Description:
Layout: H1 3-13, E1 16-17, E2 36-41, E3 44-49, H2 53-56, E4 60-62, E5 70-75, E6 78-84, E7 107-109, E8 113-117, H3 137-142, H4 152-166, E9 170-174, H5 185-198, E10 203-206, H6 214-222, E11 226-228, H7 236-242, H8 251-265, E12 270-276, H9 282-295, E13 297-303, H10 320-336, H11 348-351, H12 357-363
Parallel strand pairs: 1-4, 8-9, 9-10, 10-11, 11-12, 12-13
Antiparallel strand pairs: 2-3, 2-6, 4-5, 5-6, 7-8
Region (Disordered): 15-37
Organism: Jiella mangrovi
Keywords: 4Fe-4S, Iron, Iron-sulfur, Metal-binding, S-adenosyl-L-methionine
Amino acid sequence: MSDAALINDLQTRGMRLVDPRAGNDSRRGGAGPSDHKAVTIGGTTVMVPVHTAPAFESPYLVDAPDAAGVSRVTRDRVEVAKVRFPSRPRFYDLSTADGIPYNKIAVLHSRDVLATTVLQTCIRYESRKKTCQFCSIGQSLAAGRTIARKTPEQLAEVARAAVELDGVKHMVMTTGTPPGKDRGAAILADSARAVKAAVDLPIQAQCEPPEDDAWHQRMRDAGVHALGMHLEAVTPDVRAKIMPGKASVPLEKYFASFEAAVKVFGRGQVSTYILAGLGDTPEAILAMSETLCGLGVYPFVVPFVPISGTPLESHPSPGADFMAQVLGPLATMIRAAGMSSEEIKAGCGRCGACSALSTYEKLAVPGTPANHEQRTER
């Protein structure tokens, strides 16, 4: 099994841990890659579900790390890989002057990405009739694992520490959608400006398309290097069913905002999250991705992972075959459009840990390491 196939299978099936304490802390619920654990396979760090219903029944079992920090991954008692767990970051041990732990302000994703949800509330989440059915942005706030609003000063302080202590390479700033026509762009611009004044760190901002496209340039001027505006689902029926509030923003608005943002940030520096497994067919996802690639927008397709406490907690994840039908052709499509995850300056697509897409991209280019059957630590 190639790295791409193994990562794809792990991300759709999850894994069981002999020692749940191995590696960095995993989070249950909340924004971002919740219910996952970061593991490094060869030279690639990915997020794999560990706290979901499918993961509890996964055929993959991961042993406790040995003295060298290496864990065996077995399936039906047969070793299929060896992995490592990124360690707990040192900046997690610090707190602000007013006593807020740094990991309530921002957290480590994968092994070198700092991530924060600047505003932990959302106009979509406040009503079950409007909420995105997969979203758990309010769970970590209700559990006291984060704070409702991170100030620019707090984010700058934590970002500087994460770079100095843990070698963080880039930062993701997302936000719940606030009231107002900027859709969170103003909060993100203020936050990016403060971080850039404190430390040289590439930043991706994520928000809904602002009503005024001038916000793209304002975010760029504030220090944002890349922008994510997430479709989540690609067909009107699925969008209306899965995210009734967000679906009120028509696809035409997204396309117009994508086009305007690419003019500011450049081809491949604007991206969109697409959750495979919510009802869109592989053909629909690939058709949308072809349109996005034509615009210069990177389509970051990830397998849907059900999170407990959400309306979709019992919705199945897509199978590995489904994802392979999408990721293989998509990787070729992205490369043909002159884009790649490696060239994204910051953000989810650059990190790539929530999908096997970046590994499939390497398979699409002859002579790259992922094309070879011999792999590190197997």
